[in-house]
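I hope you will forgive my troubling you with a question about protein structure. I should value your view on which stretches of the chain appear to form regular backbone elements. Here, with my thanks, is the record as I have it:
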Amino acid sequence: MTTILPRPLGLLILTVLSMSLAACSQDSEYDLVIANGRVIDPETQLDAIRHLGIRDGSISQISQQPLRGNKTIDASGLVVAPGFIDIHSHTPTLLGQQVNLLDGITTQLELEAGSFPVSFYGEHFRDGAQINYGSSVGHWAVRTKVIEGVDMPYIFAGDKILTMAGPTWMQAATAAQIEQMRLLLNQGLDGGGLGIGVLLDYMTEAVSEAELSMLFEVASERDVPLFVHVRRGYTGDPAGLVEVIDLALETGAPLFVCHITHNAMGGIGDWLAMIDEANQAGANITTETLSYAAGGTSISADVFRRRDWQAIFDISYQDVQWVATGEWLTKETWDKYAKEQPTGMVNHHYVKEDWVETALQWPGMMVSTDALPAIDTSIPTNPNIAGTFSRLLGHYVREREVLSLSDALARSSLYQAQWMEQASPVFKNKGRIQRGADADLVIFDAQTIAANAVYGDPYLKPTGMLHVLVAGELVVQNGLPVEGPAPGQKLLGSVSPVSYTHLRAHETSLHLVCRL
């Protein structure tokens, strides 16, 4: 049956319909469209040509059909992926931000060392950040406050780099001091700390069983992760791993083992098997590896000052570089620098390629930079800061074929976001390309992506990393920094339920007044 409307009514309906379509068309216009890209979302396993519509900093549409936007990026022949989350960085500086972004890092987190108070972290970004950033509560900083009465918020504050010497790093804590640390750690978590960072290997003889147990108890009570640099044994001795696994099983605290390859060494397969066994028994443990082989740290680190580092790493002086000059050391130059420049950094070359490849193939393995502090390009650092993720995609994916591209992207973004959801709900919208997710994105050429940064020339930008977006704003365009926009956010942890009666009992026993 056909209904014929009176002409005036028909015209009215056509007019209304036309206005509605116009409004719909207007609504479908996005702030930015990324067109024709190979979109890879590691969580849903999407790997197809799609068009992304971005509005108000979020991914609003993922379409097989072209979209209209105020601006358009033609990503034909390029990969569009979630922005990389560096879960282990020590360089919250403007230079660190710039070189990280050029490598596709959109979120930079200081979780191994952390800070206290967390409110101070990110001082270099006070005028605005292009990168997202955040910090755990630093156990060492809390320890410094309690044992020495000194405030040193994080390992690189202002232009001062921490010297890992003094009572904090060598002196055992009393029972009262341990309880005071417990209160301050809870304060730090209430202040937005993304878990608790524990530099255990740098204070091997100072931290007692009681103090370490307290750290796991706090993490368990607050249901936040511990990020632990385990006590290092000789050439991969797993005793340090066993210690923290036992506490993770006992308390239920989520445990993140920092740079496992650099501690496990040739025992990497056994270490990963031990984590698998613990997880099967109910633990919640994960870990990370680096994509560069050397270790980088201070020449005043505990392992160099107080222990037989040559036996531990199975190397000698000629395997160590002085970061500031790139020179290979001798015993004479080592002794000179250790005495005159105790805050100076060294790269010690002891990690083997097959250790890294074994680690990368472990399900759930994350990749991070462990980037050292960088404030001026005239002062060398390690190349991790500029090439970690480009090296992963170029060397280990395209050249070595250790991983598929989607697997590598999961290890660069998704797994970090999923793990960090335990610390803050903000990570539910990161590490993914899905509707409603944050528009933190990287656009690169999978055929040419490669790291150029090397030891001795660490700031060289990668090849093939073309565009980077944070909250939908271009911060890298055609491989070059974009000045002006500051869409980065400081990411804070959520305050989880906690037994304040339990905390007040500790507080009363110490006769302390602590505002939680």
